[in-house]
Design goal:
Elements lengths: L19 H18 L3 H15 L6 E5 L5 H9 L4 E6 L2 H11 L5 E5 L17 E7 L7 H14 E12 L7 H20 L6 H9 L5 H13 L10 H10 L4 E8 L2 E7 L5
Parallel strand pairs: 1-2, 1-4, 2-3, 4-5
Antiparallel strand pairs: 5-7, 6-7
Length: 276
Amino acid sequence: MTDEIIDDSHEETFVQTLSPQTAHDWIARWDVQQEGYLPDREDRFTALVDAVEAAAGRPDPLVIDLGCGPGSLAVRLLARLPQATVAAVDADPLLLSLGRSGYGHVRGLSFTRLDLRVPGWSDALTLDRPADVAVSTTALHWLAEDHLRAVYAEVASVLRPGGLLLNGDHLDTGDTTPVLSGLEKLVHDRETARRFAEGRPEDWAQWWQATAADPALAGLMAERERMLAAAELDHTESPLLSTHVAALRDAGFAEVGTLWQRGNNRLLAAVTPPRP
């Protein structure tokens, strides 16, 4: 699980700087609890960065990170491709402040608070050229189908010809192959259960409960609560692979397919048409 991509405006309504040590401590706990649900999280990160490196066609690619959270993917990508530029986007004020405070020194990385459900979000990034790659991990399934379609269409509009979108997420095939979908989910659930049995790492709810109890994060938590209260949520998600594939094709992507998979955890890739 990761955070919902929600906000009520394109404006930065609250900014709080945390000490780098506080940020790194909380990001470390975030990574551990995420790995409880994704035992192969680092493998998926590695496969994603491999694809970026191979497909970008240059040592300094421009990458958009959608639903970036505290920047876990972005810093791994920049560790491999230090000349890259990563425009990291999320709506959660607490996760963004963790990223800014913990990784603000990383060259080429910027964080912007944006609501992906609001058309035109990419304008706020003020990109100086078409992006080479757009990436996301465990985030876009939170969007309802109509918002997901709009996001994919906007991503396609800011990618260069032959640009790449990479979405690592749990995407089910239950609507087309119910038996295999059940087996995919079983593989993931059993691996997750084994991971939690090995010392019971902090889970999603416990991580958020702990952040709420930290006085250093009180202002950010209050802002997050205001954001959640103001957001118009229908709690509709897009967990089906077929929904994402159809939305990508309708957005104009020329090729769509799975690059890496383990159970129902997969890395979905899509390529924009090449230049005529």
